[in-house]
Amino acid sequence: MTTSVALCTFNGEKFLRQQIDSILNQSMKVDEIVVCDDRSKDATIDILNGYQKKYPSVFKIYQNESNLGSVKNFERAVSLCSNEIIFLSDQDDFWIENKVEVILNYFALHPEINVVATNGYGIDEDNNELKVYALWDIPRFLREKRIEVNYFHLIAFSGNIATGASMALRKEFLSSTIPFPVINGFHHDEWIALIAASKNSFEMLNDKLFKYRVHANQQVGEVFFDATEEMKNIVIRHFDYHINHKDFRSFKRILKRISNSYKKNRELSKEENYMKIGEEINVDLKKLYFKHKAEMFRLHPIRSTLLHFSDSVLNKRKLK
Question: Is pTM, for the whole model, over 0.85?
């Protein structure tokens, strides 16, 4: 399979060389690196031009006429890729040397899968490994608790677990995802994962194949949490959309999460590629919401009644 890397840059001079070198030093070489720069004002373009001069058959560099923002910049980058498998790449991370090889082997063995994301390490600005858990650990955590992992429901109901920096997809699948929607707080990686998961063609590998850098200037973060049993259990409760604990606080928590997911999903339902799927998932969310609400009223009638009136006034935990 032929490979492209869609690399988006914006004022990335500090870590860009480390990332590009890690891509070039893969055990299975990539065929093409497509870079879309979003009007950098530092030395990013000079760095890129240096690599293009050294590897003219590999690098294709484009500079946007105006600042597109990360979502539309990635949309442009993947659209310009020409090969069968497209790897998404941030400018400040680091790829483990067998990343491309592992993912290509997985695609070869699983023709039904269109999008793959992976686990990874956290590092700081000085390349020190962070002792943390990540969102990418969540499928493993859930399976350890014998909780069913349905990727589509997991992402639609509870939130994204896939990071674009770890993601690869088949070029033929692009038409199912483009255009990427621009919605506040919603990113291209969640969109790609959601569409693929809705078609049962998304997989999350537990292999740690990249290093995700935490630093002051990154555009998107918040993927790590303390590596404690307490935080692990909190995260499991958040991503488990079934209620195992029948206390009043748990009902409040899950109703709030369902209502937030419903509102987000309603916005996504305006997108042509997601319209039918979005309508179906909102039906499921409504069923889940009213099931949990009825159970809450049965077990905690007085507090549930007070909460209902309070939420009506404050417009909280509502499907509106």
Answer: yes
Residue with tokens 């409760």: 237
Q: How is residue 253 written in tokens? A: 């928590």
Token pair for 8: 């988006």
Structure tokens at 120: 């990874």
The residue to which tokens 């014998």 are assigned:
146
Q: In angstroms, rounded to a whole number, what is the distance separating the alpha carbons of residues 184 and 191? A: 13
Select from 82, 72, 69 the least CA-distant residue to 33.
82
Distance CA 277, CA 296 (A): 29
In the chain, CATH 3.90.550.10 covers: 3-226
CA angle (96 as vertex; 94, 100 as ends), nearest 5: 105
**Residue in 115, 296, 128 with CA at minimum distance from that of residue 194:** 115
Q: What is the pLDDT of residues 1-38, one digit of tens each?
A: 999 999 999 999 999 999 999 999 999 999 999 999 99
State in words which class domain 3-226 has: alpha beta
Cβ neighbour number for residue 25 with a 10 Å cutoff? 10
The angle that helices 44-54 and 16-24 make with each other, rounded to 10 degrees, is 20
Q: 217, 198, 211, 206: which is closest to 271 by C-alpha?
A: 198
Alpha-carbon gap, residue 8 to 180, rounded angstroms: 15
Within the chain, how many helices (H) and strands (E) appear? 11, 10
